[in-house]
Amino acid sequence: MTVRSHDQFNTTIYEYNDRYRGIHGERRVLFMNKQDMAARSIKAKDLIDITSHYEGEQRTVEKFVAVPYDIPKGNVCAYFPEANPLVPISSVAKVSNTPTSKYVVVTVVPAAVSNGASEKAMAREAVEA
To answer: What is the pTM of this model?
Structure first.
């Protein structure tokens, strides 16, 4: 699912901090259940790639930061509009015709990073959660 952060109005982002969720200086984050993270060998603040799956189509966003969060097992959450590329264009609500941003099937894997050490260090400093 996608959510807005504190200091955000629709697509206007005023700060890169989210005091509601304890995030500071970063928006490319994925909130995950701790058990789901462990099952995928993902640690807090690791860089990850996220892929959505819909009717045989896949969309991927890269180098998000994994954040353990009190969220039900099997669910994840990311900020809007950063996660918009994962939302299939043809997946819309029947009556309102709005994108199904609250129901997108995704897989999460450790990021395939070319210069991993420096990018991981940067990501670890950016998020305090």
So the answer is: 0.76
